[in-house]
Design a protein that fits this description.
The structure holds two protein chains of two kinds. By secondary structure, chain A is an alpha/beta fold. Helix content of chain A is 40%, strand content 22%. Chain A has two domains: 186 residues, P-loop containing nucleotide triphosphate hydrolases (Rossmann fold, 3-Layer(aba) Sandwich), CATH 3.40.50; 61 residues, no CATH class. The longest helix of chain A has 21 residues. Chain B is mainly α. The chains are: A alpha/beta, B mainly alpha. The complex binds adenosine-5'-triphosphate (ATP) and magnesium ion. The site of magnesium ion has 4 residues of chain A, from helix 2.
Chain lengths: 284, 331
């Protein structure tokens, strides 16, 4: 399962400790804390994401993974902390600007745009559209050729994701798994440098999962960075170069998939939670 | 019972000034609600601003009517900004609350004693502010046929009004079918998803609010011109809800819905009224059941009943697609 490409190689030389520094980080976060009332949902001291790698963010339910995604992408603001993407500080930058900088996310609860067709969902993703300006929208000859080019690109991606037959259907008519695929395909229309996927495999059937994995690997081959949240350990094992483990808002371990999954702290974080609910009433 | 008279009254209302006003008001709401998902419950406020903006400058300041139109558009943009800046970043329900209140504030200010000198208080403004418009009328004799009848002034409003409606509808049609319109419809579905694709949702919502509001103020121009007067109490909440009725009747997010909705709305109101009135005066409907003075109320009851039936049997409106409406359940 060892891959030989630039994105993966760093794993061999990087220290496998929480907060370890990477040779070429695209994303760096420092002292990020987010409290909801008394609850500290996220408390990340330091984390770096290697450019061109596939990094998995794992952790038990309620670990703070989605909240951390929301903070990084501007959907929520932390109580404290700083983070940067490609060297640019992202504090206070609204979500749409984060996306324009090249960091595009998907959502755990899929956000397909229901009463738009699959194709319209895709076309929406493209950046720099002349026809999206209010003044130019009324003059179709200004944007028609660009629209055709975007449509061509969308068609290619939809074929890749096996959604091309559905292009004229409303997104609401897709199955849950297909919506996950559409959301990821749509994110690619933005041509991001980094893709952040929140549970891209949830609810996707095994056959489709395999092709989704291929798509994610393909992204790395194109030089993109992927950070994804996933509960399915086989999947994490199969495609990630690096794994970061969160529990109770903190990063408790990181390293290669093999090392991390043998880590006793990680096993405890996952299983401990279950033992607690099964046996004694409260954990730490 | 004079059937020809009923037909004449009904058809003239179907194509008449009121249908134009409501079509325009509903086109604006279609931009807000149908295409962007903005709940504007203050459309009457935009109409009032349009109406007062043509009457006041001409009467009180002697400004040309054509300049007054520009003032009206400027004021409605200002009103849209005033509503949008504090609310469009918040959840959708805030806009609904703020707009309904703001429209009432506009009406209360208009009818207040403080500004009576300019705005005419609760009596409103009546005067010759529309002369520049009616001087251009080449059809001063009006139109009288067995099935259609307009006074000279009304005919001029009707002709120019429907041309305006057609023009605005055409531009709307082009715009909502452009990439810009696609962003609007996407915002209606899920703002956060649109943000994640790099679109400035706030800016788009503001554009929608302004465009729909300006069209609403144009409806106000027609309202004021056609009556050659502005009455503050015509611009109450009921006006907004009638405009919504028109939109939903036609089918939200359909570009022709406001036109057809407005025609059907006025067709029904006048037809029911005329039939009831004819029935009562010719004693076909007995006096103990409906008196002449009750006809006005009863037509709205029947109208309401009809709308209820429509919502039960054709909830998507005349033009709407039932499949599309069902998707709203976010299955
Ligand atoms: N808006 C909010 N208000 C209050 N508490 C919140 C909010 N969002 C998240 N939390 C809490 O923060 C903690 C982390 O939630 P989060 O959704 O980030 O977990 P997660 O790691 O994504 O879990 P899962 O794997 O189940 O998706 C949870 O305890 C959750 O209840
Ligand atoms: Mg989550």
């Amino acid at each position: 399962m060892q891959k030989h490409n630039s994105g993966a190689d760093f794993a061999l030389t990087t220290s496998q400790t929480p907060g370890s520094s990477k040779p070429d980080p695209i994303l760096i976060a420092d002292k990020i804390a987010r409290q909801f009332g008394g609850l500290t949902a996220v408390n990340v001291d330091h984390v770096e994401i290697q450019r061109g790698s596939i990094t998995a963010l794992i952790g038990p339910n309620g670990a703070g993974k989605t909240t951390f995604f929301n903070l990084l992408t501007g959907y929520d603001s932390p109580n404290s902390g700083t983070w940067s993407f490609n060297g640019k500080a992202l504090n206070g930058i609204p979500p749409h600007k984060v996306a324009r900088l090249g960091m595009v996310r998907t959502f755990q609860l899929t956000k397909a745009l229901y009463r738009l067709t699959v194709m319209e969902n895709m076309l929406l993703g493209a950046r720099g559209q002349k026809g999206e300006s209010v003044l130019r929208s009324a003059f179709p000859w200004i944007w028609r050729s660009q629209e055709a080019a975007i449509q061509e690109k969308a068609t290619a991606i939809l074929k890749n994701f096996k959604l091309i037959e559905k292009q004229d259907d409303f997104a609401a008519a897709l199955s849950g798994g297909q919506r996950k695929l559409l959301e990821m395909a749509r994110a690619l229309m933005v041509e991001p440098e980094m893709v952040m996927l929140d549970e891209p495999m949830a609810g996707v059937n095994p056959a489709l999962k395999q092709s989704l994995l291929e798509h994610i690997k393909e992204l790395r081959n194109e030089g993109k960075t992927v950070l994804f949240v996933e509960h399915d350990m086989d999947m994490v094992h199969e495609i990630s170069d690096w794994v970061i483990v969160m529990a109770q808002g903190q990063i408790i371990a990181e390293g290669t998939p093999a090392t991390v999954m043998g880590n006793s702290q990680v096993i405890e974080a996952y299983l401990g939670a279950h033992h607690d609910t099964d046996l004694t009433s409260e954990g730490a | 019972m004079d059937i020809l008279f009923i037909i004449q009254q009904t058809l003239s209302a179907t194509l008449g000034v009121n249908a134009i006003i409501f079509a325009l008001a509903a086109i604006g709401l279609n931009m807000h609600f149908g295409y962007t998902g903005l709940l504007n419950f203050g459309q009457a406020g935009f109409l009032a601003i349009g109406a007062y903006s043509v009457a006041v400058p001409v009467i009180s300041f002697g400004i040309s009517l054509w300049v007054a139109f520009l003032i009206g558009i400027f004021n409605s943009i200002l009103f849209a900004l005033l509503l949008g800046v504090p609310t469009l970043r918040l959840r959708a329900d805030y806009l609904a609350i703020v707009t309904i209140a703001a429209a009432e504030i506009v009406r209360q200010i208009a009818r207040s004693a403080t500004f009576r000198d300019f705005l005419g208080g609760s009596d409103g403004i009546t005067g010759k502010f529309a002369s520049e418009f009616f001087d251009l009328n080449p059809f001063k004799q009006g139109l009288t046929t067995p099935i259609l009848r307009f006074s000279g002034n009304d005919l001029w409003v009707v002709i120019t009004g429907w041309i305006l409606v057609a023009l605005i509808t055409f531009i709307m049609w082009v715009m909502v079918n452009s990439p810009w319109g696609r962003v609007m419809r996407a915002i209606r579905e899920d703002e956060d998803a649109v943000r994640s694709l790099g679109k400035n949702v706030y800016l788009y919502k503001m554009q929608s609010l302004i465009i729909g509001g300006v069209i609403g103020s144009i409806a106000g121009f027609v309202y004021a011109l056609s009556r050659q007067s502005v009455q503050p109490d015509n611009y109450g909440t009921a006006l907004t809800f009638f405009a919504y009725t028109v939109l939903i009747l036609g089918g939200a997010a359909r570009v022709f819905a406001p036109i057809v909705g407005a025609m059907i709305f006025w067709f029904l109101i006048v037809f029911i009224e005329q039939v009831l009135r004819a029935g009562v005066t010719s004693n076909i409907i007995p006096d103990w059941l409906i008196g002449v003075n009750q006809v006005g109320q009863i037509r709205f009851m029947l109208m309401g009943l009809g709308l209820m039936l429509l919502m039960i049997f054709r909830p998507q409106g005349i033009f709407g697609d039932k499949k599309e409406l069902a998707l709203d359940a976010k299955a």
